[in-house]
Amino acid sequence: MTGKIKNCPMCGRLFSDTGLHVCMDCYDKIERKEHEVIEYVRDHPKSKVPDICEATGAPEKMLKKMIREGRFIEVGVKMTYPCEKCGAPIMTGKLCRSCMEAMRMDLQRQSAAITASRQAERKARGRGMYSKKMMEVIKDGNDRELPKKRGKWQ
Question: Do 81 and 108 belong together in one domain?
Answer without folding.
Answer: no
